[in-house]
Structures are given as C-alpha cells and as structure tokens.
Design goal:
Blueprint lengths: L1 E8 L5 E7 L14 E8 L6 E2 L4 E2 L1 H8 L2 E2 L8
Antiparallel strand pairs: 1-2, 1-3, 2-6, 4-5
C-alpha cells in the first residue's frame, strides 16, 4: 500500500509517527497535534506484523479499525 507518513516531536527528543493511506487527510482526532510531513507515497506492507522504523505495531489491524496507524507510546523512538 502507498502511504503518507507524518512525524510529531514528543518529550525527551522522541518522535511518534502517523501513517495514513496515500491521499487521505490526517484523521480529525489527530489534527490537534503538530504533525509534519516525513514521507509521501511510501510503499508499506500492511500485512507486516509491525513497522519497526516507525514504532508501529499491528499496522493492518490499526488501519482496519481506525483508518490510520500510529506509534505505540512504548515504541517512541529518539
């Protein structure tokens, strides 16, 4: 799947990522945060168990349930 990836700075120099299918807007529940473009039209395998480079677990399940996938708090990377 082609996806757009956004990044947000968290505390202590860590970052979280939000991945949405290409062309979709950031979901309303996430727009109150300061998300910045990181990549556009990146090929990602939604059947993968995780996207470790983004700290995202069960991306396919998240996409089905919410329409987007987001970094797990325990997986935030610095």
């Amino acid at each position: 799947m082609l996806a757009d990836i956004f990044r947000r700075e968290e505390q202590d120099g860590k970052f979280s990522h939000l991945v949405v299918p290409q062309g979709r807007n950031i979901p309303q529940e996430a727009t109150n945060w300061d998300w910045h473009d990181e990549a556009r039209a990146k090929e990602l395998d939604e059947a993968a168990a995780s996207w470790p480079e983004y700290g995202i677990e069960a991306p396919g399940e998240q996409l089905r349930k919410k329409g987007y996938a987001i970094t797990s708090v325990k997986e935030m990377t610095g």
